[in-house]
Amino acid sequence: MLKNFCLIIILMIATVNLFAEPPSPLSYKMEPLSMKECLSQALQYNLDIEIESYNPRIREFDLKYAHSVFDPALTSTFLVSETEREVVSSSLDSNPVSIYTTRSVDWEVGVAKRHILGGSVGLYYGIDYAKSLDVSSSIRNPQWGHGINLKISQPLLRGLGIQVNMTDIYVARNEQDRAYYLLHNKMISVLADVETAYWDLVNAIANYELQRKSLEQAENLYKITQTRIKYGTSAPADILDAERNVAYKQDSLVVAERSIYDTEDRLKQLIRPLDVSYYKDVRLLPTEQPVFKSLQVDFDACLKEAMEQRPDLKASEISLRNINLSIDKAENQMLPKLDLAADVGFRGNGHASSEAWDGMKDGDAFSWSVQLSLEIPIGNRGPRSKYMQALLERKQIILEHKSLENLVIFQVRAASRQLTTAMQRVETARRTRELAEKQLANEENKFRAGKIPLYQVQDTEEKLIEARIAESNTLLDYQRALVQLEKVKGTLLQSLSKYGITIAPKAISQDQERTF
Length: 516
Known about the structure:
The protein has 516 residues and is an alpha+beta fold. The chain is 60% helix and 20% strand. The longest helix is centred in the middle third of the chain and has 70 residues, at 162-231. The model is unreliable at 1-25 and 507-516 (pLDDT under 50).
């Protein structure tokens, strides 16, 4: 705890020293930033996440469109026609040929709905009016008709079955689920970058402070060398080495300062894009420091977790599920077309509309019909081509899925090894720093006793600073390795709970049953 507290104080002092005297006269606003605040802003403002978040909503309209084929439809037809025909009467008649003209008006309205077995059912009500006119005798014969009919159609081969007729809905729902998985994958990628950029900034500030201390020591050595030359205890040529060392440390400090600005801008790009004033006027002060904890890395357990949790793998599985649905539908489309149609209804006729209406209500005229139609495509090249194409696409998707699984194995293997190596390097860097501290304490005692010259102490102090920089860099590598392992396992969103952030995943539908 004491060591962590000291690191926090050092980093805060380093940041204040860095920004208290900026290279330009502009005044900056210091903004303390925790990891939780950083991740929350990324979830709210990051453009890549926002872009990807539209896809599930877009896919939602595909699902609604797929459902719409089962929506009831109101239909209406209106027909006006005129027909002339010749009627030959008895040869004894003075005018054996009569011309009849029939003028008719038909109107029908109904409601029809497709059902999940592939057929449709509809209820229709119609009114028709016809008037026959004998041109020679001007005889008119008006006729009214009212009728109500129930019409049913059902495919018996091609297009038959719930699975075939629900395929578009299943595919659309799966695509929406796939869009959510890809959104989760994008969130994992972006938030991993955010965590890495945050720790990069922490490390950049720590390195700057260590480089500043190194420069101070080089300047002190330069002053001591000047004093020794003045009193004749050192040769004048020794000042060149001291000056070179100061120039080198100044250059390292400039590079360290630029690194802070670069990593800070990278973090700003992820959490507050397009905010120009935030880029220019705000300096970020990370409030969290890396904490090292030795872990046991189990490759088999990590790989199993990755195979179960990776969103991109789940999205690939959905693609395979969809192509299987498409194959089943394409196979059905190769069947002959055999359709059954039935019509049953009541009709009333009369010379007046009311008379026809009463006849229909009383069921004076009952009618029914059954029709069976068959169509056998010759060659059947179209449906067969679609079926063969779907089979090839399935093989392709299977190979793509295997390729992704292979990539997951490689990434988990590399991330596990990277974390193991990072933990080992933290231990060795810590040991190196501890030894450098002991060596410095020992040489300071020797210097006080007059056994060694001052420059030897200064050289040991320089090595201690280098060891501290190396330890800081290994801590950064350790944090990066932790983030990378959570990323390749696909568990990074769940791991954010340690920062108090909970992302409730969208419920992904796995069933294929729906009621219509």
